[in-house]
């Protein structure tokens, strides 16, 4: 008997173009809504988390009142699009988290196992991988000139599809990983190490913070990354 060939799977790709077109319209509308009276509460929340207007515009952050964009239902909340190389891979909503509902939800049809802010990694010698888009955003805002930052779709459980995202790590001699101090974060860091090898090093934040909460608490995350980079350069 001939051996049964192993199944082949296509590389992970973005949603169909029709979905992207409808999502792109929603992203623009939600961006506009964020700067109206309707979005004032969401904007105040984002400013409290430390984001500047430039950062919110850079990452196309918006606010949905809960409406349909074409065939897509965009739940109420802060909209976080996964925009990579001109394609929109997912549209995530940060809800108010009331009534026991999850804080984050995805617009149906999203492809969330994507490398948020992947474009920043190209041709760089080092990179930082965070858990969560907000952490990647605040890191880019505060020290993106020192090291490019990306996030695996906001979930520590997301594994990198190397067929799709491997090229973004080809030039890297150091891949720093900063994950939440919990079981999911530990599993995410281990998975990253298993996939990308001993170039992956952990960067630990004090007091069990994530990057955004540490920044909110007055922590100097720019000095933190400088110290982390210097440590691994000296011990390379």
Topology readout:
Layout: H1 17-34, H2 40-48, H3 53-58, E1 62-64, E2 67-69, E3 72-74, E4 77-84, E5 87-94, E6 104-106, E7 115-116, E8 126-130, H4 133-143, E9 149-152, H5 162-165, E10 174-178, H6 183-196, E11 200-202, H7 211-216, H8 221-234
Parallel strand pairs: 8-9, 8-10, 10-11
Antiparallel strand pairs: 1-4, 2-3, 4-5, 5-6, 7-9
Describe the structure.
The chain is globular, with a radius of gyration of 18 Å. It is built from 8 helices and 11 strands. The chain is of the alpha/beta class and 236 residues long. The strands form 3 sheets. A 5-stranded mixed β-sheet has the order 7-9-8-10-11, with helices on both faces. Strands 1-4-5-6 form a 4-stranded antiparallel β-sheet, covered by helices on one side. Strands 2-3 form a two-stranded antiparallel sheet. It has helices at residues 17-34, 40-48, 53-58, 133-143, 162-165, 183-196, 211-216, 221-234, and strands at 62-64, 67-69, 72-74, 77-84, 87-94, 104-106, 115-116, 126-130, 149-152, 174-178, 200-202. The termini are far apart. It is 35% helix and 20% strand.
Features:
236 residues; 5-stranded mixed β-sheet; 4-stranded antiparallel β-sheet; 11 strands
Low-confidence stretches: none
Q: What is the topology, as strand order, of the major beta sheet?
A: 7-9-8-10-11
Number of helices: 8
Radius of gyration: 18 Å
Mean pLDDT, all residues: 89
Q: How many strands appear in the DSSP assignment?
A: 11
Head-to-tail CA distance between termini: 51 Å
Shape: globular
In what range is the share of β-strand residues? 15-25%
What would you call the structural class?
Answer: alpha/beta
Order of helices and strands: HHHEEEEEEEEHEHEHEHH
Largest sheet: 5 strands, mixed
* Helicity level: 25-40%
């Amino acid at each position: 008997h001939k051996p049964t060939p192993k199944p082949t799977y296509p590389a992970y790709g973005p949603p169909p173009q029709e979905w992207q077109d409808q999502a792109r319209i929603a992203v623009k509308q939600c961006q506009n809504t964020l700067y109206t009276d309707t979005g004032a509460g969401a904007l105040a929340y984002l400013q409290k988390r430390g984001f500047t207007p430039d950062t919110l515009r850079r990452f196309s952050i918006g606010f949905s009142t809960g409406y349909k964009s074409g065939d897509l239902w965009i739940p109420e909340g802060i909209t976080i699009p996964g925009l990579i190389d001109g394609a929109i891979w997912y549209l995530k909503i940060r809800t108010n988290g009331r009534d026991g509902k999850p804080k984050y939800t995805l617009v149906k049809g999203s492809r969330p196992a994507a490398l948020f802010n992947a474009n920043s990694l190209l041709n760089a010698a080092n990179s930082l991988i965070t858990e969560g888009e907000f952490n990647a955003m605040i890191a880019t805002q505060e020290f993106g000139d020192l090291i490019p930052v990306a996030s695996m779709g906001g979930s520590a459980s997301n594994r990198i599809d190397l067929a799709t995202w491997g090229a973004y790590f080809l030039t890297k001699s150091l891949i720093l990983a900063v994950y939440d101090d919990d079981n999911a974060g530990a599993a995410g860091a281990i998975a990253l190490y298993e996939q990308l090898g001993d170039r992956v090093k952990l960067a630990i934040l004090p007091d069990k913070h994530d990057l955004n909460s540490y920044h909110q608490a007055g922590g100097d995350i720019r000095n933190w990354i400088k110290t982390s980079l210097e440590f691994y350069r000296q011990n390379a």
